[in-house]
Amino acid sequence: MRILFSILFSFGFLITVSGQTDTGLMRIDTLPEYFYKLHSVERNGESLPEVDIKEVVIIGRPENSKKFPFHKYQRLVYNLKKVYPYSLLVRERIEEVNQELEKLPDDKARKKFLKRVENDVFGEYEDDIRDMTITQGKLLIKLIDRETLNTSYELIKQYRGSFSAAFWQGIARIFGTNLKEDYDPYGEDAIMEIIVQEIESGKL
Predict the structure, then answer these.
(1) Distance of CA 20 to CAs 9, 17, 122, Å?
(2) pLDDT tens digits, residue range 25-60?
(3) Which of 7, 83, 109, 181 could bond to 104 as cystine, CB 3.0-4.6 Å?
(4) What is the pTM assigned to this prediction?
(5) 113 vs 57: CA distance, rounded Å
(6) 137 with 194, same domain?
(7) Does residue 59 form part of some domain?
(8) What is the mean pLDDT of the chain?
């Protein structure tokens, strides 16, 4: 596919600049600023022109669906850029916590440590979390599952117990969210996954 594009691009390039000189081709040193030299690669003993292009991902939609709401897409980009860093923070903290828990001698010490971590995180990021909208909170729950491979419910259950997990799940349901929600990058979260990858690559 990449070789095919290189061939087509080279033909298009020659057609575009043809007729500019007596020989039918414009000299490289007289090309306008919007043209540039292609680098070449060796394949099977031949030197071929090549240019890198940005990957384009196309997602199909049902025939009976409405026109894609671009304003909602822009809003999704905005919200993901805001909450994505916090999902990375959760992953980082969990890794640190797990490493520390392995060093502690008993359950009492582990519970004390977890309580201290909880208070530290709450004190440091309380204002940021309170400023999030319900929509942003839902996205963060999804991203936590993406980064940790565990739902928020599973994480609370693991570190704080079944009772705490059930309690916070009940609170979440009141506000229309679900701590047990999985991240599905190949299904309903496909567009979200594309945006996150763009954020990760620095393109957004």
Answers:
(1) 19, 6, 68
(2) 444 455 444 444 556 777 777 777 776 666 655 555
(3) 109
(4) 0.64
(5) 45
(6) yes
(7) no
(8) 76
Pairwise CA distance, residues 155 & 94, whole Å: 9
| Cα–Cα distance list, 98 to 25, 141, 157, 158, 164 (Å) | 65, 20, 15, 11, 19
- State yes or no: pLDDT of 136 exceeds 70: yes
Range of the domain at 13: 2-50
* Span between the terminal Cα atoms of the chain, in Å: 26
Beta strands in the chain (DSSP E): 39-43, 46-50
CA proximity to 118, closest of 151, 160, 149, 79? 160
Positive or negative, the Cα torsion across 181, 183, 187, 193?
Answer: positive
My answer on whether 83 and 124 are in the same domain is yes
Contact (Cβ atoms closer than 8 angstroms) between residue 152 and residue 91 = no
Name, in order, each residue with C-beta under 8 angstroms of 70's C-beta and a sequence gap of 6 or more: none
Residue with tokens 């977890």: 114
Q: How many domains does the chain have?
A: 2
Which structure tokens are listed for 138?
């839902």
Enter the tokens of residue 36. Answer: 């540039």
Residue entry with tokens 């409405």:
66
Secondary structure of residue 179 in the 3-state scheme: coil
